[in-house]
Amino acid sequence: MQRRNFLAQLASGAMSAALGCGGSVFAYKDKKRHAPSPPPKLDRIAISTWSLHNYFRATRESTSNLRGPMLALLDFPEMIVDRYSVRHFEVCASQFPSTEQAFVRELKYSLANTLSTIVNISVDIEPCGPSGTFSDPDGETRLAALEAVKPWVDIAHDLGVKTVSVAPGKVDPDDLAPTVASYKSLATYALAKGVHVVAENQNSFGAEHPEALAKLIRLAGPGRLSALPNLANFPDEATRARGLKLLFPLAPALCHAKVREFDANGTESGYDFPQAVEAAKRFGFHGTYIIDFEGPGDPYAGIQKTLNELLEYL
To answer: In 3-state terms, what secondary structure has residue 266?
Structure first.
């Protein structure tokens, strides 16, 4: 469904009436699946919308020359299920064309129609970016950042999503108190709605110094904040080994299986992928691996290669 058509229908009284009485307001036909349960390994895999970020208008890089039709978030579940037989997704806040309740209902219908689920919303909004204000020393500034994040917790709750990932913004590693305060406040709000908050090892904080992220989680309280280990986000193998050992015991549900490059055999060549998956097993991880392809070339093929590797090593 084109976004302009959706908005035009939304503005009409007929649309409002249909929503109110539970009628179908969707452009596509109702063809709800009755598929058998997926194999156990496949059921532990999700695909992030960021893997195809250059096919979403909101996140397409200005230098991208990838060809092919652009994607709409509403169409993502059906396309992924049809192409990869994967029924779990991570979606990025930046790729939502609307946060209105009507759109959220339509997305929820799309998930139900494909027997699929969203396992995480990545709240990739400005207050949580590399220079964001979620960890600002000034309490009023942090409060404004917190208020910007809360609506995404509400959306997660409405969609039945159990987890939101929130980056800490610009962190002072020598003074984690402001960051801890923000996560504690957010977690209090989120847990009341049945949503859990996770933080990923990314940028210099957590990636180069995973000890700092582990310390942050312990200070915030593992019951309030959990880790989202990213297998790729370390500068070298020694830091990766140390970081995964620290973070997986703090990661009850999710990790990112990020891949950037493949060799001629279709194997991740930027880091020791099999060893990273083995580390996850060794440290007791039984959750979902989210495919996060960020390499050059065709991302659809990159997703398939990453999926093949995961199915081999899980």
So the answer is: coil
- Which tokens is 285 given? 């991880």
The answer to whether 196 touches 223, Cβ cutoff 8 Å, is no
CA dist 258 and 13 (Å) reads: 45
Instruction: Give per-residue pLDDT as tens, 183-223.
Output: 999 999 999 999 999 999 988 788 888 999 999 999 999 88
Buried b (16+ CB within 10 A) or exposed e, 22-35: eeebbeeeeeeeee
Adjacent-strand bridge partners of 209: 205
Distances (CA, A) of 88 to 84, 123, 294: 11, 17, 19
Give the global pTM.
0.88
The radius of gyration computed from the CA coordinates of the chain, to the nearest angstrom, equals: 20
Q: Report the C-alpha dihedral over residues 270, 283, 92, 100, rounded to 10 degrees.
A: 170
Residue 85 identity: S
The residue behind tokens 């598929």 is 35
Cα(47)–Cα(45) distance, rounded to whole angstroms?
Answer: 7
Alpha-carbon gap, residue 196 to 121, rounded angstroms: 11
Rounded Cα distance between 131 and 133, Å, is 7
SS3 category, 225: strand
164-176 pLDDT tens trace: 999 999 999 899 9
Looking at domain 36-59+67-313, what is its CATH homologous superfamily? Divalent-metal-dependent TIM barrel enzymes (3.20.20.150)
As a whole number of angstroms, the distance between CA 285 and CA 296 comes to 29
Q: Where are the domains of the chain?
A: 36-59+67-313
User: What one-character DSSP code corresponds to residue 150?
Assistant: H
Residue of 189, 191, 199 lying closest to 148 (CA atoms): 189
- Report the relative pairing of strands 88-92 and 45-48 from DSSP bridges: parallel
Q: Whose CA is closest to 111, among 65, 73, 61? A: 73
